[in-house]
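Q: 2-hydroxychromene-2-carboxylate isomerase, please. Structure only.
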Amino acid sequence: MTAPIQEELASNTSLAAEKAVFGSPTYFYKNEPYFGQDRSGFLREAITGQPI
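A: Structure for 2-hydroxychromene-2-carboxylate isomerase:
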């Protein structure tokens, strides 16, 4: 792994720890976490305002 990639990985890992991310995928919208692929509908609803 190149140094820039290692630095980005370390940065992303630190940010995930700060936000208490415990798995993947985790998305944040307006500081609200949406964890897991099965929550993507809820995320889409939050973004668009249209029910799933």
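A: Brief note, in case it's useful. The chain is about 50% helix and 15% strand.
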